[in-house]
Amino acid sequence: MGRNRLRTGIGLTVMAIVLVALPFLLTRYYVDLTIVFFAHLILAVSFRLITTTGDFSLAHVPLMGMGAYASALMAKYFGWPFWLTLPLAGVASTVVGLVMLYPLLRMKAFAFFIGSYAIGEALRLSWIRIGIFGGHRGISGIPHPSISIPGFVTISFAGVTPYYFLTLAITVLCLLIMFLIDRSRITQIFKAIHAEDSLVRSIGINVTAYRTLAFEVGTFFSGIAGVLLAHHLGHIDPHQFDLTTGLYLLIWVVVGGFATFTGPIIGVTCFTLLGEVMRVFGAWMPLVYGCILIISLLFLPEGLESLPRWISPLIKKMGISGNRA
Amino acid sequence: MNILELKGLRKQFGGLVAVNDIDLELEEGEIRGLIGPNGSGKTTLFNLISGFLQPTKGQVIWQGKDITGKPAHSIVKEGVVRTFQLTTLLKDMTALQNVVIGCHLHIGMGLFEQVFGSAKRREKEMAVVKKATGLLETMGIESVKNEPAGALPHGYQRVLNIAIALASEPRLLLLDEPTTGMNPVETQELMDKIKMLRDELGITMILVEHDMKAIMGNCEKITVMDFGKKIAEGSPEEVSKNEEVIEAYLGR
Fold this sequence. Notes:
The structure holds 2 protein chains of 2 kinds.
Chain A: H1 2-25, H2 28-51, H3 60-77, H4 82-104, H5 109-129, E1 139-140, E2 146-149, E3 153-156, H6 160-182, H7 185-195, H8 197-202, H9 207-233, E4 235-236, H10 243-256, H11 262-277, H12 285-299, H13 307-324
Chain B: E1 2-13, E2 16-27, E3 31-35, H1 42-49, E4 57-62, E5 65-66, H2 72-78, E6 80-82, H3 95-102, H4 111-116, H5 119-138, H6 154-166, E7 172-176, H7 184-201, E8 204-208, H8 212-218, E9 221-226, E10 229-234, H9 236-241, H10 243-250
Helix pairs in contact in B: 3-5, 3-6, 5-6
């Protein structure tokens, strides 16, 4: 136990040093990429939080878009500061999510999956139709965030390095909160709802309330991810939040594995790295992604996170046979 | 005083009347047997009392209070807890974890504390584990508490389901065929435990059972259903002599 804790401690320290040093070591392009990677981390981990109840939501990406739009509009038209638009955008996503849940809670499993696609798409199309969201062209010129205490100090996050650290801090905070939720009793109940919802009802748990809780917490964080993307890119449009992105999200989490908290993190990390290595394939990338998904479903149905469990007995076996030889 | 009263309870699925105007009165501390051929509406009746289904008509009066049509989770809070005909467990979790989850109503923590609490939370969590262990001991299965529920022998799983139900601190327990798949010795052991629960914890029970011997020997009063209707009620002797009951079971 003590050794494990030491190992975890060393691991976290090394990771912290790497993350702090990163923007000074990498080129601008890769720092940009890392910022997007952070937003995707929040997106994937919050998506997996919802799936623990058995609800696979294709509305997750449009709801991330809702956060992005909300923050962009508040910052651009009202000039509200970032520390205010960030949580408010998360709240905007949860409010829209709550409206979506009204029909969605009456659905389960596959019906929920398809229903969430339809309703997410309805949200996305409303951005095209309703004037204030800027139609197909979306919203440009989203201001860089700055945090100011009036009359005291103003910190601008206009440069890529300051924005990197802002994103890093928010991402760490979001992941920490979701990690605490994951090891709490609440997640056990989410999983129990997935496994045996009639048993859960019979012990006095309001299944609808807990499904709502999971969906709304996940949606809040997807909104936060949207904010981080919007202020980073400076431009958002409805096509960024369409089904393609939703399918990529699904692939990250399915290939990474959704049984534990680390699964989606592994998935996003691997696919971000892979995306860079395979950039030469260009337009063939979706094909590569599809092949990886199929191979992973065939040979690693529990995702990359289950890899150590598969490999360690193999290594042991090889070790033993090696000794015999 | 009657602890539970059903007044003209009815459930209709389209043209099929699954439960047909059932009246039932249950005294506190009673162990009531509920029997009837397959498809006679026993489980549907349980679903109506426990709020898993909404009745088409009629009333469920619990301790003088009308609880008809309330959602299942609030009926559990009132103290009416049911088990299932099919073994319904969290198979990947251990027996102890199953009961710990079952303690949901009595953990004494809000959502915020469950996520962000520290020292005090651990204390409360330990108390819940202690309570769950105690329930496994009461049911005599504490020896398997760290086994995954899905890997337990069938008889243990049935008993574990009752332990989970007890975690909600019921006043009325609806047991749906608790002894299916048990041999006569196990069946009698479980029946003794059920009586013990009544005597020591004062839990009133309705028992759906196919094992005639078990039910005749252990219930003071038996209700018989056929095609959704109550056809007989009384002591085991009365019921077993009843013409209609014999007909329902053996055919004309």
